[in-house]
Design goal:
Length: about 190
């Protein structure tokens, strides 16, 4: 019989040795998950800043649904506030009363009845009429933030809307901006009307 060859790992082959290059992998292109992970701190920061802004300026924005109260349905005839007023009355273009409770509509600003000029007085009267007309169209709903904010004048801040037959919302603030001469109110200083 012939001689058996044994494998010896220490033994080298004679001749040329062939080196194998290290494996190279192409880096994978970043996907949507990588982008989300890298943006997550910024998204959280934006969320916190937005919530802080909503809470510090409650008269500027409606609260998100999960921070809102159950809707309160109001049904009644609104008169002008003053001598001989009813339980429901309108103060000006962005404020009305339910008995002794003053309600300020969130998201709008209108001219004041104590006008500084004739143009403001005309605008205040038009806005007050528009608000009274909208409120007297029929039952409507009011919601508020869960912490029930009030403004510096002691008025309750409310989001006011009516449900249409198709289920959509007819928001008072949108109506007043479109047809009642109101401006959007996003907090801070208010411009003049003269």
């Amino acid at each position: 019989m012939g001689k058996k060859l044994r494998f010896n790992p220490k033994r080298r082959r004679r001749g040329k040795t062939r080196s194998v290059p290290p494996a190279r992998f192409k880096p994978r292109p970043p996907g949507w998950r990588d982008a989300f992970v890298s943006l997550r701190p910024w998204l959280l920061l934006i969320g916190f800043v937005t919530m802080a802004y909503i809470f510090t300026l409650p008269g500027a924005f409606s609260a998100p649904g999960w921070l809102s109260s159950e809707p309160q349905v109001i049904e009644g005839r609104f008169t002008r506030c003053g001598r001989g007023r009813g339980y429901y009355c309108v103060v000006d273009g962005d404020t009305f009363k339910l008995g002794d409770t003053s309600v300020r509509v969130v998201g709008i600003d209108t001219a004041e009845r104590e006008a500084e000029c004739a143009a403001e007085a005309v605008q205040a009267e038009a806005s007050t009429k528009a608000l009274q007309g909208w409120l007297n169209r029929g039952p409507f709903r009011m919601t508020h933030r869960l912490d029930e904010p009030i403004d510096r004048y002691g008025r309750s801040l409310r989001t006011v809307y009516r449900l249409r037959p198709d289920g959509s919302e007819d928001r008072l603030a949108d109506f007043m901006r479109a047809e009642g001469g109101a401006r959007g109110y996003w907090g801070g200083g208010r411009g003049g009307w003269c």
